Amino acid sequence: MASKRLGYAWSLTALTLTLAASGSISAQADDQIFDELRFGASASIQDGNSRESGLFPEVTVFFDPFDQRGATDWKTQLARPRVNLGTSIGTSGEATQVFGGFAWTVNFNEKIFAEAGFGGVWHNGELDDNDNGPDLGCHLLFHEYLGAGYRFDNHWNVIAQVAHSSHANLCDGPNDGMTRAGLQVGYKF
Fold first, then answer.
1. What confidence tens digit (pLDDT) does each residue in 11-61 have?
2. Of 87, 90, 68, nearest to 77 (Cα)?
3. Nearest to 63 by CA among 21, 23, 17
């Protein structure tokens, strides 16, 4: 079962990378689909039985339908969130996530920025009676994250972030949630 889950996760990652590559081609033609592609890894920062083992490779694509790139000050930046879609892949039999939502970015200067995101996630993890990992209650959860980043130039950046997914006690069953922290490298088209 775990190998089947991993196969689905890698298929989703391949699809995401293919779409990102096509976005790169579109970006060259000034008909840009994707604003940014990020890839990296995270690990569980939970304690006790709720801790997930292993590393979680991640891929996230960002879209800019509200022209956040054209925002001139922090108020305008907050009024124009980007849209994201991504996956966090469970490599040790832990939950794989597929998430999406909105991301708000505030630039402190040309190099340093902060980001917050909110949306939803679907996962394939254990709902209850999990002896080695979180009991999640339902497959659809809320997903939020906070991050701090550094831009190397107009294209490349790195961001450290903490992400949390849980159902906020809105569905029956346990709500251990998943909390992961990690690093991602981003490329803005």
1. 444 454 444 444 443 344 356 789 999 999 999 999 888 889 899 999 999
2. 68
3. 23
